[in-house]
TrEMBL record:
Organism: Microvirga tunisiensis
Protein name as it appears in the record: Dodecin domain-containing protein
Pfam families tied to this protein: Dodecin (PF07311)
Length: 86
């Protein structure tokens, strides 16, 4: 049986919502293995001087949990370890 866990993250980019999503997945993949999908929950844009300057997303990343002997030897990953996306 496979079990998938989801964590909620926030990311931003000066270029696009798609770029903010890519950056979140790339950053999360440094500490999370087996990422299977991403679901963007919310979109937001920062406006300064009548111009959009930042695109922000709140998203959920789904990843499959390890099973078997590898799971027992793997350190547990808390959500605090993947916060602070740049």
């Amino acid at each position: 049986m496979s079990i998938v866990k989801m964590v909620e993250l926030s990311s931003q980019s000066p270029d696009s919502w798609e770029d903010a999503t890519r950056q979140a997945v790339e950053r999360a993949s440094r500490t999370v293995r087996n990422i299977r999908s991403v679901w963007v929950k919310e979109f937001e844009a920062v406006v300064e001087n009548d111009q959009v300057t930042q695109f922000r997303v709140i998203l959920k990343i789904a990843f499959q949990l390890d099973e078997g002997a590898n799971a027992r030897s793997t350190r547990s990953m808390g959500s605090d370890e993947i916060l602070g996306l740049e």
